[in-house]
Amino acid sequence: MSDRRLPFRARRHGVSEPPEPPERSMDPRAADSPEPPPVEHSLIDAAIYVDGARVASPSTLAETYRELHARPGAMAWIGLYRPSESQLLSAAEEFDLHALAIEDAIVAHQRPKLERYGETLFVVLRAARYLDDLEEVDFGELHVFLGANFVVTVRHSESPDLRAVRRWAEDRPELLRQGPEAVLYAILDSVVDAYAPVVGGLQNDIDEIEAEAFLGAPNVSRRIYELSREVIEFQRATRPLLLMLTDLSTGFDKYHVDQELRRYLRDVQDHATIAVERVAGFRQLLEGIMRVNAIVVTQAQNEEMKQLTAASNAQNEEVKKISAYAAILFAPTLIGTVYGMNFDDMPELHWTLGYPFAVGLMVLVCVVLYLIFKRRNWL
Asked: Burial of 322 by CB count in 10 Å (0-12 exposed, 13-18 middle, 19+ buried)?
């Protein structure tokens, strides 16, 4: 695919970026999240563009507003990182942003969506990146306010790297001349592009888990469950994109957006569709692996039960033999005990055949018991 066909995707990867400020939680109110950055650090970058070129780099929001008003036909691109409420309210007053959209941007934890408030477009995106060391997916959140002459981005996470997006766009003034819609395209392309390595990482994890499930590895059920949660969360981040991009295309038609920009947007839509379909396939595959794992676990349990049953049967056989011999030996002991009482009135004591009779009785009882136990397969 040519650079003109896929400008952002072809040039963005491979650029070394300086580290971003550390961010972990999307919700500033979360107990385990780091403290919000100082107000002066929340404004990551602000720029004024005229005819696709940066003409000013204000250091404060107030200065940005003045520069924008002073330059007819200019566009402002303001990048905020976990801003304070006062900063968002300042931008809301300046650009007439809807109160509900501002509330969403402050609270965060929003689903991906696209809403229009008058002449302002509000977009919520869920970014994702795969952490190789932890073998898990880290999700972020990005809010974008789009107007006739401004773009305000509010990040609540490390991804996406909007500084790389800004540099790429600034290298293409012919694209920035298209206005805020071009910035939105570049952001969408960055977010969707980042889904590709996530899909690859999840595919590798699923392949590993599939092999472990067939081998009956321990704790594989827990890994399947954890990975299923990540896939479901990823599905929640990607599935709404298709409807959003469709609605955005409809809006581009209505507002007569440049045809080349529409082609780029359709390219993003194609990549988003691929990601959504792959994620849907992952969920079905994990459900199948879960069933296979349940079957393997059941078979293993059945084998263990068979072994335990066999061992129990063997023990029962031994107990039967021991019990049979104990009964055989008990009979002569009982007879001998009776004849050993030495009572004077026992007729057998003075009988000449008393001793042979007692011995013969013992032998007879033992033989009878042996034959009975042998017939019942106890011996």
From this structure: exposed
- What tokens appear for 174 in the block? 């012919």
Give the Cα separation of 59 and 36 in Å (integer): 19
Please give the DSSP secondary-structure letter assigned to residue 134.
T
DSSP code string of 253-318: HHTT--HHHHHHHHHHHHHHHHHHHHHHHHHHHHHHHHHHHHHHHHHHHHHHHHHHHHHHHHHHHH
**Burial letters for 187-221: b for 16+ Cβ neighbours within 10 Å, e otherwise?**
bbbbbbbbbbebbebbeebbeebbebbeeeeeebb
* pLDDT at residue number 115: 92
Q: What band does 348 get if pLDDT is binned at 50, 70 and 90?
A: low
Q: Does the CA dihedral 62-63-66-69 come out positive or negative?
A: negative
Q: Where are the beta strands (DSSP E) in the chain?
A: 43-50, 53-56, 75-81, 113-117, 120-125, 128-131, 136-139, 142-146, 150-155
Lowest mean pLDDT among 60-69, 215-224, 340-349: 340-349
Backbone angles phi, psi at 180, to 5 degrees: -60, -30
> How far is Cα 77 from Cα 209, in angstroms, rounded to an integer?
44
Does 15 have pLDDT greater than 80? no
Sequential DSSP letters for 174-198:
HHHTT-HHHHHHHHHHHHHHHHHHH
Distance CA 122, CA 115 (A): 5
Residue 205: enclosing H or E segment and its boundaries?
Answer: helix 180-215
pLDDT tens-digit map of 262-319 = 888 888 999 999 999 999 999 888 888 888 888 887 887 788 888 888 888 888 888 8
Collapsing DSSP states into helix, strand and coil, what is residue 73?
A: coil
Amino acid at 148: A
Q: Map residue 36 onto helix, strand or coil.
A: coil
User: CA 54, CA 65: separation in Å to the nearest integer?
Assistant: 15
- Residue 101, number of CB atoms within 10 A of its CB: 21
The conformation of residue 56, written as its DSSP 8-state character, comes to: E
Report whether 153 contacts 143 (CB < 8 A): yes
* Sequence-separated (6 or more) residues with CB below 8 Å from residue 230: 136, 137, 202
Residues 65-94 pLDDT 10s = 999 999 999 999 999 998 888 889 999 999
Residue type, 75: M
